[in-house]
Every structure is written in C-alpha cells, then in structure tokens.
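User: What would this chain look like folded?
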Amino acid sequence: MFDMIPEATLTEAQKTRMAIVLREAEALNRAIREAVAEGLAIEMIRAARHHCGTGCWGDQLRPAVVKC
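Assistant: Here's the prediction, encoded as structure tokens.
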C-alpha cells in the first residue's frame, strides 16, 4: 500500500493518516487527468517542506499550469 514503509510497522494512527494521504493523492491525480483532458499542462512543484520538529517532514506541492 505504501512505498518503502512496511505497513506492519505503522501505528493505527499512522495507518489512518497514510490512508488519507493516499486517498487525497488519488483525488489530485484524477483532477490532474481531467485538467489535462481540458487542454492544460500540469506540473507539480515542491513549494515547501513541512517539518514537525522531531525529524519527520513532508513535501508541500503547488501546481504550475500552462494552457496547451
């Protein structure tokens, strides 16, 4: 289900959060496919990196959109 993390090593709270990230990533991918079908070129660019203060981090994205 998740790249590089054995799911068995995650807590239930972490599994829940990862499932949310996966669901939202799938929704983003669907929106990108639909935008491309309407004649837009979409590139996702890292806009920031969020740090929790204990060594964990996550990339935050922004779209670069071009009309084809």
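The chain has one helix and two strands. If you want, I can go into more detail on any region.
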